[in-house]
């Protein structure tokens, strides 16, 4: 296959059909197509409406607590002995992760569209908690679909969602994880499309979701550009973020895609290893169609979707956002992978060296920092997106380390 053409700008996609090269698109049932088109129109109008932009900016400041800090991790820098490491502290946002950036934008859009019933899917529970929180804030009905396996391993977040007034629906089909939760949410949307807004949590799904969610999350990278200029007087030399569906990663990456001096790394979940059970869709998958878009997927030789595995409930989706697939093929972003064991080691190191307990998701990114940072000179500026806090993972990690709480 010929190599994809490189565009004049890496930030101009998707095209009018919602495609990033051969990826993305809009593969949905006829029942949903009118509502997808309505959503696209509504989002296009909203983002050009100063009132919508001002309302989101106000809530970002006074409800979420933005801007999130860009923190110099002095002890980690000393520990690895190479690059100067900065952490973008998305875990300090209200609700404890980057997910709230996207949910705020979608909930404000749902209100403009007159939708009062909100549905969502969630893996680790961070998107579910953010959705339940914003629904409580604006008095909207909230239903969250969550795989039964994830309900068990993310019990603290399930309780938080219920406290916030959401209905959590355990999904018993398939592997009972994130893919199956998204299947059930899509079925609900088809059935109740006239009254319901589907708040998708990552940069996947049919167009316009991948571009819309990316736009809401790009506040991460936009703030990082400004904060690094203030701290060091120049752009960072490298960016690193974990990738499941890839919303925190594209949020950090996108504002830097047209800066050739900036190296960009996404880190997938290698689970037990790329030759065993894992959730590394780019490293171990191939292009196919799932949940309304074409992208890299974990599939068997017959084209059937395989279950992803990761120690992190937020990374075990068997696909990845279509823009990441395109960025991989054109070579703008380098995608690496970290195993469960590497992530668990990074989880403990980060906690003990910096006094910050990271989510297992971003511990995958930290595992690759441990490899990359020592190879860089001391004036190399490296930014890691700390996309969520690890409180939700403490019971699971304690069990794996043989500690009974």
Automatic annotation (TrEMBL):
<keyword id="KW-0028">Amino-acid biosynthesis</keyword>
<comment type="function">
    <text>The beta subunit is responsible for the synthesis of L-tryptophan from indole and L-serine.</text>
</comment>
<dbReference type="InterPro" id="IPR001926">
    <property type="entry name" value="TrpB-like_PALP"/>
</dbReference>
<keyword id="KW-0663">Pyridoxal phosphate</keyword>
<dbReference type="InterPro" id="IPR006653">
    <property type="entry name" value="Trp_synth_b_CS"/>
</dbReference>
<comment type="subunit">
    <text>Tetramer of two alpha and two beta chains.</text>
</comment>
<dbReference type="InterPro" id="IPR006654">
    <property type="entry name" value="Trp_synth_beta"/>
</dbReference>
<comment type="similarity">
    <text>Belongs to the TrpB family.</text>
</comment>
<dbReference type="GO" id="GO:0004834">
    <property type="term" value="F:tryptophan synthase activity"/>
</dbReference>
<feature type="modified residue" description="N6-(pyridoxal phosphate)lysine">
    <location>
        <position position="99"/>
    </location>
</feature>
<dbReference type="InterPro" id="IPR023026">
    <property type="entry name" value="Trp_synth_beta/beta-like"/>
</dbReference>
<dbReference type="GO" id="GO:0005737">
    <property type="term" value="C:cytoplasm"/>
</dbReference>
<keyword id="KW-0057">Aromatic amino acid biosynthesis</keyword>
<protein>
    <recommendedName>
        <fullName>Tryptophan synthase beta chain</fullName>
        <ecNumber>4.2.1.20</ecNumber>
    </recommendedName>
</protein>
<keyword id="KW-0822">Tryptophan biosynthesis</keyword>
<feature type="domain" description="Tryptophan synthase beta chain-like PALP">
    <location>
        <begin position="65"/>
        <end position="388"/>
    </location>
</feature>
<dbReference type="Pfam" id="PF00291">
    <property type="entry name" value="PALP"/>
</dbReference>
<keyword id="KW-0456">Lyase</keyword>
<comment type="pathway">
    <text>Amino-acid biosynthesis; L-tryptophan biosynthesis; L-tryptophan from chorismate: step 5/5.</text>
</comment>
<dbReference type="InterPro" id="IPR036052">
    <property type="entry name" value="TrpB-like_PALP_sf"/>
</dbReference>
């Amino acid at each position: 296959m010929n190599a994809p053409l490189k565009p004049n700008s890496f930030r101009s996609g998707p095209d009018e059909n919602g495609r990033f090269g051969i990826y993305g698109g809009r593969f949905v049932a006829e029942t949903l197509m009118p509502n997808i088109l309505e959503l696209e129109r509504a989002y296009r109008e909203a983002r050009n409406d100063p009132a919508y932009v001002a309302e989101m900016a106000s809530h970002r400041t006074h409800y979420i607590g933005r801007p999130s800090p860009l923190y110099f991790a002095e002890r980690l820098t000393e520990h690895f002995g190479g690059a100067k490491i900065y952490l973008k502290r998305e875990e300090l946002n209200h609700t404890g992760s980057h997910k709230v950036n996207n949910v705020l934008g979608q909930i404000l859009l749902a209100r403009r569209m007159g939708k009062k019933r909100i549905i969502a899917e969630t893996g680790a529970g961070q998107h579910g908690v953010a959705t339940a929180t914003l629904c409580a804030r604006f008095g909207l009905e909230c239903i969250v679909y969550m795989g039964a396996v994830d309900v068990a391993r993310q019990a603290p977040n399930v309780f938080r969602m219920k406290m916030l007034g959401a209905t959590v629906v355990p999904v018993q089909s398939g592997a009972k994880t994130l893919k199956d939760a998204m299947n059930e949410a899509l079925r609900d949307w088809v059935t109740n499309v006239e009254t319901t807004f589907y708040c998708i949590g990552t940069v996947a799904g049919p167009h316009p979701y991948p571009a819309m969610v990316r736009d809401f999350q790009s506040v991460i990278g936009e703030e990082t550009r400004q904060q690094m200029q203030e701290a060091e007087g120049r752009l960072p030399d490298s960016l690193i973020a974990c990738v499941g569906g890839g919303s925190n990663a594209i949020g950090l990456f996108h504002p830097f895609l047209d800066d050739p001096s900036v190296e960009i790394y996404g880190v997938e979940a290698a689970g037990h290893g790329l030759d065993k059970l894992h959730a590394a869709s780019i490293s171990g998958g191939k292009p196919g169609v799932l949940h309304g878009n074409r992208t890299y997927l974990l599939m068997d030789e017959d084209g059937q979707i395989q279950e992803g595995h990761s120690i992190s409930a937020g990374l075990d989706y068997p696909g990845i956002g279509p823009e990441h697939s395109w960025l991989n093929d054109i070579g703008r972003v380098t995608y690496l992978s970290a195993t469960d064991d590497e992530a668990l080691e990074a989880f403990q190191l980060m906690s003990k060296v910096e006094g910050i307990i990271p989510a297992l998701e971003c511990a995958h990114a930290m595992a690759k920092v441990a490899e990359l940072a020592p190879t860089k000179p001391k004036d190399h500026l490296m930014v890691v997106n700390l996309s969520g806090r690890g409180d939700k993972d403490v019971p699971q990690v304690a069990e794996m380390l043989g500690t009974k709480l």
